[in-house]
């Protein structure tokens, strides 16, 4: 496995982690807003 592939893989993993984190935060915000409304 060469350097470029490793760096690309790492970047992709980081991006996926960011995406998952953002999704979780968004869902959490929606849930808390929904709880406060009902």
From TrEMBL:
Keywords of the record: Membrane, Transmembrane, Transmembrane helix
TM spans (from-to): 20-37
Record-given protein name: Uncharacterized protein
Organism this protein belongs to: Pseudomonas frederiksbergensis
